[in-house]
Amino acid sequence: MKFGLRQWWSYQRRTAAPVVEADLTGKTVLVLGASTGLGLEAAVHFAKLGAGRLILACRSEGKGQAAVAKVNAATQFQNKLELWLVDLVDFASVKRFADKWDQDGGRLDILVANAALGTMTFTETKDGFESSLQVANLSTPLVVLRLLPSMLKTAEQYGSIGRIVVVASDAHYWANIDKEVWEGDAGIISTLGSAEYHRKKGRSAMLDRYSVTKLLNVFFARALAARIPVSPNGPPPIVVNSVNPGMCRTEIFRELPGPISLLVSGIQSVVAYSAEEGSRQYVYAAVGEPEHPERLHGEFIMGGAPAEPSDFVVDANGKKLERQLWDEVVEILGKADGKVDEIVQSYLGNTFAS
């Protein structure tokens, strides 16, 4: 689907749909990136829907405690509300988070993978990757893959259907990935995240970095969905999708340079949704279509319904890139965390069906 400026403007001017209702009694919901903005507002909604256990996964303990207080104040939450710390620019932190889950986690029904950086500054993490790529396209998949066995076990034990929601964006419609990136030998993530690539491309390398990370989020969700084992006559044990909250008034672009930040703020003041309104899309992706959850499997969610992703995602080149990206991400994460290869081999199919 093509999604130009006119379509985007029209979409942003639509009245936000009401939040989807559901009964989450007894279920466990984990929201990644829940300290502020969309993640925090989604957590408030899940609390109001009666989640039996709600986990806010945050980078900062101070902001995380403030988020816990806000959820409590907004909902008078009576069930189990927890703060777990994880720093997505550090694989070691993600591994500790996942190891803690393996030891103490238990049931997990809904995982909202909400994490991104909005930056135009090239910063390399200690793991050797550009920071926004590591947060959105490596550490987020690492969290998802490490928690996948627990979600599959939950689905089997309780006869339920889990949900993995990968937060993407309509910005993916405008992402530009040079052909040399996905046709080269170095690898997609390795090339996009290298200092050499950024020296070569100059400022343009970071101008569309946010949209590129969101495109890769869409690809990851589709690739994972295609590999979730599905019985011949039933829905998948876990529904995986990606979601677009729309442009919302959040802190995501707080690190942009002054002039660009002012421009973005001006646009937001005219057409942006509130964080609460945007978070309703998360809730729909996580609990919508309860009678036929398979309708949301592998889909890009936008405006409270499945929507066609960009033309590039669904054409032959996009499908080729999706396969390459999956293999590369699994390889990188397998080196960062020895449990990844075992999980992929033991729990995920090898066929590609998207």
From TrEMBL:
It comes from the Eukaryota. It holds the Pfam family adh_short. Keywords: Oxidoreductase. GO terms for molecular function: oxidoreductase activity. This is Retinol dehydrogenase 12. The lineage of its organism: Eukaryota, Fungi, Dikarya, Basidiomycota, Agaricomycotina.
